[in-house]
Specification:
There is one protein chain. By secondary structure, the chain is of the alpha+beta class. It is built from three helices and seven strands, in the order H-E-E-E-E-E-E-E-H-H. The strands form two sheets. Strands 1-2-3-6-7 form a five-stranded antiparallel beta sheet. Strands 4-5 form a two-stranded antiparallel sheet. Strand 4 and strand 5 form a beta hairpin. Bound molecules: nickel (II) ion. The site of nickel (II) ion has 5 residues, from helix 2.
Length: about 170
């Protein structure tokens, strides 16, 4: 027997942009990774690709739940989306790294942000299975950027007041 065809079409949801106050919300933990959460994940992945992004937090589509999707390895059109539910940083290096960051909720602004270069994190996948990962480079930066969204923090909040006002001009 074949499996049931996948009939549901993924939906691109509107992305909130700053200064929408909802982006300041602290997101709630997911109690159970169920069908509703998987639908949210699928829609977020579609929305991220539709906006040409490499990461998206649920609050960016107006859902205050601790869910992220990322794909930092989209070279040659090959997609590798990963969902992170209830992600948590277990350890962060003292060593820092600087990346130029942008955000789908802060269009057309990029600026350098300094963050721990390496982190260890835990999360649940789209099947509710727990994982622990060590991340560095773009993965570490992107995870920290997206996890900031779960606390209502934008990358602009890491910039000095002067840089922030210059970036917003
Ligand atoms: Ni962002």
């Amino acid at each position: 027997m074949g499996s049931k065809p996948y009939l549901r079409r993924m939906t691109i949801r509107p992305i909130l942009t700053a200064p929408d106050p909802r982006l300041k919300a602290v997101s709630e933990p997911v109690a159970k990774v169920d069908a509703d959460i998987r639908t949210l994940i699928d829609d977020m992945i579609e929305t991220m690709y539709g906006a040409d992004g490499i990461g998206l937090a649920a609050i960016q589509v107006g859902v205050a739940k601790r869910v992220l999707v990322m794909d930092i390895d989209q070279k040659d059109g090959k997609k590798n989306p990963v969902a992170y539910v209830n992600p948590k940083i277990l350890w962060a290096s003292e060593e820092l790294a600087v990346f130029e960051e942008g955000c789908l909720s802060v269009p057309e602004i990029w600026d350098e942000v300094e963050r721990p270069a390496k982190i260890r994190a835990e999360y649940l996948d789209r099947d509710g299975k727990r994982h622990e990962i060590e991340a560095d480079g773009l993965l570490a930066t992107c995870l920290q950027h997206e996890m900031d969204h779960l606390e209502g923090v934008l990358f602009l909040d890491h910039l000095s007041k002067l840089k922030r006002s210059m970036a917003l001009k």
